[in-house]
Amino acid sequence: MARRAAVVARGVGTTLPVFVDRAGGGVLVDVDGNSFIDFGSGIAVVGVGNAADAVVARVQEQVARFTHTCFMVTPYEGYIEVCEALNRLTPGDHEKRSALFNSGAEAVENAVKIARAHTRRQAVVAFDHGYHGRTNLTMALTAKNMPYKHSFGPFAPEVYRVPMSYPFRDPAGMTGEAAAARAIDLIEKQVGADEVAAVVIEPIQGEGGFVVPAPGFLPALARWCTDNGAVFVADEIQTGFCRTGDWFAFDHEGVVPDLVTTAKGIAGGLPLAGVTGRAEIMDAAHVGGLGGTYGGNPVACAAALGSIETMESMELVERARSIGDVMTTRLQEMAATHDAVGEVRGRGAMIAIELTRPGTTEPDAATAAAVAKACHADGLVVLTCGTYGNVLRFLPPLVMPDHLLDEGLGIIEKALASAT
Ligand code: PLZ
């Protein structure tokens, strides 16, 4: 840590001062030999594990053949295979195209470029509590000032924010349709229906606090986009690739987005991201308008193919559902005895607890931090999130065995008891 402080910019944070030596099967082992149960998956990345056999084998084979040519200069088959997989697995059976990039933020930026080229409009609508990245345009799309935006402006123009459906904090009984009408009214009055190029939304918000919108919210927004010629962009960067108990969270809603952004879980830990969507929208960008030196790097594509193969062969969609059942049951039991737990929510292996002052919805970030710290000290990696910093989120690798899941939940229970 002293060497880190001497050479790494302080803006790059650290959740745990633990240096990893090896990792796999839901366990991180540090350089001192301590082991940690991993309920973070490197922020929802290593669903298939930190070194899945098929990922390792394909990466080793590819890295020995060639590491790079630049797909825009001389293409290679792996990129095509990843696009075929994305077009097959993302929601909807319409004709699709994909393009590959390096990071989630870059995918979101490109989705906006494509939507603008297609619609010849400029305005982009994003949501309260939304998170889309740390580049200039995606900072503008991201809601939370600290730590993501503070002192980093000015931000990209033509970005408008409207209210999310947040059942725990919305007026009691507000339906998804009513929450959508609230957002749509603002869009129509303040932005103008025929100015909107894209509506960008996470189906379940990640950094914003694992906010699951009320049923009906996402379909109503998607319908509005269709009726008004706006591109409906699903940011599935945190929710995608089996995490929520479907290949993509939008599958659950029965909603087919126009464009889908993916990253994180796509490639078993290697940097890769994608934009996938309707052929006529994707192809609106002119030849040469999309790309980047490393986008769809061959080693990252090999990792993605190994990762997707693992998800299919190990049936990780089903596994995410059963992890979700186990976590939700145990956490609801804890909520019944610890009144600091205001809500247990999420879907599949993407579950969180929101901590509040007992009997209220007043956020309690201090207790969330204390519970997280107690978990860390006891050998469990957990992450906090949420606009108010009061949400503890649990994202175990989908390959984690039941006994470790159980042990991790036991650590949370103990930490809740000691911190409250
Ligand atoms: N969209 C929905 O969750 C990344 C951010 C971690 P990148 N979330 C983790 C941090 O503090 O930087 C994310 C996301 C959603 C976009 C992104 C951005 O993906 O690969 O981090 O650029």
Plain-language structure description:
The mean pLDDT is 98. This protein has 14 helices and 15 strands. Strands 4-10-9-8-7-5-6 form a 7-stranded mixed β-sheet, with helices on both faces. Strands 1-2-3-13 form a 4-stranded mixed β-sheet. Strands 11-12-15-14 form a 4-stranded antiparallel β-sheet, covered by helices on one side. By secondary structure, the chain is an alpha/beta fold. Bound molecules: ligand PLZ. The site of ligand PLZ has 16 residues, from helix 5.
- In the CATH scheme, what's the topology name of the largest domain? Aspartate Aminotransferase, domain 2
Q: From the alpha-carbon coordinates, what is the Rg to the nearest angstrom? A: 21 Å
State the shape: globular
Structural class call reads alpha/beta
Question: H/E series, N to C?
Answer: HEEEHHHEHEHEHEHEHEEHHHEEHEEEH
What is the top-level CATH class of the largest domain? Answer: Alpha Beta
> What is the number of beta strands?
15
* CATH homology superfamily of the largest domain: Type I PLP-dependent aspartate aminotransferase-like (Major domain)
Strand order of the largest sheet: 4-10-9-8-7-5-6
Report the helical percentage.
25-40%
Indicate the proportion of strand residues. Answer: 15-25%
Task: List segments where confidence is low: pLDDT < 50 over at least 5 consecutive residues.
Answer: none
Largest sheet: 7 strands, mixed
> Tally the helices: what do you get?
14
* Distinct ligand kinds: ligand PLZ
Overall number of domains: 2
